[in-house]
Amino acid sequence: MPTTATTDAVIDTAVGNGFDLKSIVRPNIWNLEAYRCARDDFSEGILLDANENSYGPVTGIVAGDHGLQPATDPQTNPLQLHRYPDPLGRSVKQRLLKLRQGIRSPDQIFLGVGSDEVIDLLVRILCVPGQDEILITPPTYGMYKVVAAVNDVGVVRVPLDVEDGRFQLQVDKMLEAIALHPNTKLVWLCSPGNPTATRLETRDIERILNSGYRGVVVVDEAYIDFASYEEDLSLAPLVNKYPNLVVMQTLSKGFGLAGIRLGVAFADPRLVEILNKTKAPYNVSSLTLKVAEGSLDDKSIANMRRTIAHLIKLRDEYLVPELLKLPRVGGIVGTSSANFVLARIVDKDGNPDNELAHHIYNDMASNHSIVVRYRGNELGCEGCLRITVGTEYENQCLIAKLRELLSKAVDK
Ligand SMILES: Cc1ncc(COP(=O)(O)O)c(C=O)c1O
Fold first, then answer.
1. Which residue has the least CA distance to atom 7 on ligand 1?
2. Ligand 1 geometric centre to CA of 116 (Å)
3. How many whole angstroms from 3 Cα to the centroid of ligand 1?
4. Strand 184-190 relative to strand 133-136, pairing
5. Pocket residues for ligand 1 (CB within 6 Å)?
6. How far apart are CA 205 and CA 219, in angstroms?
7. pLDDT tens, 265-302?
8. What pLDDT score does 1 carry?
9. CA–CA distance from 93 to each of 63, 170, 247, 292, 340 (Å)?
10. What is the pLDDT of residue 5?
11. pLDDT computed for residue 159 by the predictor
12. Which of 83, 317, 334, 396 could covalently link to 198 via disulfide, CB atoms 3.0 to 4.6 Å apart?
């Protein structure tokens, strides 16, 4: 069995399902010589290798006026922002290993500037512009197709089964589409889905992984912390079994850190190595690494779980029941495994009403400073507004305003 020793640990690569990484990585990327800096090998002592400024930051926001005192003392300059960050974010990866029990080595973890950077890198690594394709399963997160368009990569669409808000994969149709489009290098799955809020069935995802498909399957778990607050439902440990599986997570949602931009990908070490050599050398900033490290200690993880339990309580015991009492709310679509719900607005006969949903969305945002997302144009989401669970106060404001505007619509 092959082994790699890319960072500070050595690990067997995934057991495998016949997947051959070299055959699908773009040859220019496979042959890429990674940018290397002296700091990859030496990070202590008198550091005069990277043309930094040893007197430190000029701004008082991050440190006191340096008064021409060297910035090397971590006591007076704890953030050490005059230094480039660790290119591999090793301290954060060590903490992530504790959070995701099934992940065995930092070599199975990639850190990006949000999941959005990971999405872009995967497309750039695998898809030859003007030739290759990705497969998406609408309704789904919009960035997959945006990144494909930016990179001149085709998009194959196999909709979810949207009947009765099931929002599950149509695996047979996906496999047919892959057979018809042999240049499909990436399959993007989102679980829990955006905008569906619904978890995909693990057995369906494993069917694709066991089908002999030779591309990469990505499961975007941006909302997984909301689904797994009682039991760990992440598919991340499956990267030990499938060398062509990538599981993406983010600190933007459950951890409440959208501003720091930290996305995580779990994958086979050989794929992580390719992501590492393709990314910009210092993609994740020191500030982000510092905040992320602090957010992944035991206390912060306990706090994250407590906050999520509270948000779920607000969702299930207030927001959803109150929405269902409103006139012209026909139901909640999907299974609500995330920190948002899809509320369907209907006409007087109970049919999805895009016009009214869009009017309500616009009126609330333009005239009442309450912003939700209109999703009525997405497949299976006709008449739907996607509403994030906010604080108790925010949810109450939302319900009161929706009640007022929908009652007016009924009276018309
Ligand atoms: C499904 C999904 N994936 C990824 C992202 C982007 O996450 P990040 O903030 O880590 O770039 C979002 C953000 O809304 C999302 O909904």
1. 115
2. 6
3. 32
4. parallel
5. 114-116, 141, 190, 194, 220, 222, 250, 252, 258, 263
6. 9
7. 999 999 999 999 999 999 999 999 999 999 999 999 99
8. 35
9. 27, 35, 15, 10, 28
10. 39
11. 98
12. 334
Give the distance, in angstroms, between the CA of residue 85 and the centroid of all CA atoms in the same chain. Answer: 22
Q: Count of residues for the chain?
A: 412
| Mutation choice for ligand 1 from 110, 116, 262, 337, CB with most ligand atoms inside 8 A | 116
* Ligand 1 mean position, distance from CA 197 (Å): 13
DSSP string, 136-190: E-SS--THHHHHHHHTT-EEEE---B-GGG--B--HHHHHHHHHH-TTEEEEEEE
User: Ligand 1 centroid vs 92 CA: distance in angstroms?
Assistant: 19
**Structural tokens at position 295:** 């957010």
CATH superfamily of 301-411: Aspartate Aminotransferase, domain 1 (3.90.1150.10)
| CATH code assigned to 3-37+84-296 | 3.40.640.10
Which of 119, 121, 194, 199 has most ligand 1 atoms within 8 Å of its beta carbon, as the pocket-test mutant? 194
> Mean pLDDT for each 10-residue chunk of the chain (412 residues)?
40 72 95 88 89 83 66 78 93 95 96 98 98 98 98 98 96 98 98 97 98 97 91 94 97 97 98 97 96 96 95 97 98 95 97 97 97 98 98 98 94 75
Say which amino acid occupies 139. Answer: P
What is the distance in A from the centroid of ligand 1 to the CA of 82? 30
From ligand 1's centre to the CA of 221, what distance in Å? Answer: 9
Residue 18's pLDDT is 82
Inter-residue contact 62 to 79 (CB < 8 Å): yes
Q: Which residue out of 253, 284, 373, 375 has the highest number of ligand 1 atoms within 8 Å of its CB and is therefore the one to mutate?
A: 253
Every domain of the chain and the residues it spans = 3-37+84-296, 39-83, 301-411
